[in-house]
């Protein structure tokens, strides 16, 4: 067979190695550029091996605002609450849809699928969230809008339960006197760890990278802003300095780490995701594979 051919195996390893290199080089270039002086970047461009090494960009990042630690803490709090709440809501929505005896199952599924095709738009959504739910300038303004419930995640969870948890297991629980809630908590959820790890990781990345909620729903309570909004404020401050240069104000443009600071900000923003992902990699791969076998 072709899979046992040594030449084919060598080609496979070479191909995988090239993919790994293609994935590593951008991150390496990002990190190297963040430690390269601004003047070197302007003169010589990007390089995988910095000609000079400096920590000025990170010093500048720390000096621009005292809120980086608080922004990190708020991002962790927002992501933790958002991921936990999202998984609970997704599970409680997906499990009934996986039961064939649920009354109105098709109608409920239609409304779920409908939200993937149409939405009310930004302005009506903003009015509902701010006037009806009153989440403006609150912690929930960073958690609820557009992120707390994802229809695609519900479908993945439902598909996983339908494909990997047989009705006989749940029926056995019912025969033993377990209620529907007990079957969900004691039987279904322990068997759904792979898909829950997958959805948890995807939701965490979405919350960590989100900055629009901070722009739309947080105006006065800047202490609630996460790391992405903090980084946007830093970039805005750099833009102000660059405008001063363009107006002829006595500021050395080479001393403004406009390029290097963007690289440093990207490193700061992506670092938690790189740390968290290896712990969820096994569940992520297994969950995506098993959760997409059939719909």
How does this structure look, described?
Helix 4 packs across helix 12, helix 8 (167-175) crosses helix 9 (180-191) and helix 10 packs antiparallel against helix 13. The protein is mostly helical and 295 residues long. The chain is globular, with a radius of gyration of 24 Å. The chain has helices spanning 6-34, 38-44, 56-64, 68-98, 105-117, 122-132, 151-164, 167-175, 180-191, 193-209, 212-217, 227-246, 258-290. The protein contains 13 helices and no strands. The protein has a single domain (2-290), classed as MetI-like (MetI-like fold), CATH 1.10.3720.10.
Contiguous uncertain segments of 5+ residues:
291-295
Question: What is the correct CATH architecture?
Answer: Orthogonal Bundle
Nearest-integer average pLDDT: 80
CATH superfamily: MetI-like
| Series of secondary-structure elements, N-terminal to C-terminal | HHHHHHHHHHHHH
How many separate domains? 1
Q: What fraction strand?
A: under 5%
Helix fraction, binned, reads over 70%
The separation of the N and C termini measures: 32 Å
**How many strands, which pairing sense, and closed or not: the largest β-sheet?**
none
* Gyration radius, rounded: 24 Å
By helix and strand content, what is the structural category? Answer: mainly alpha
CATH topology: MetI-like fold
Question: Could you tell me the number of beta strands?
Answer: 0
Number of helices: 13
Overall, the morphology is globular
CATH class: Mainly Alpha
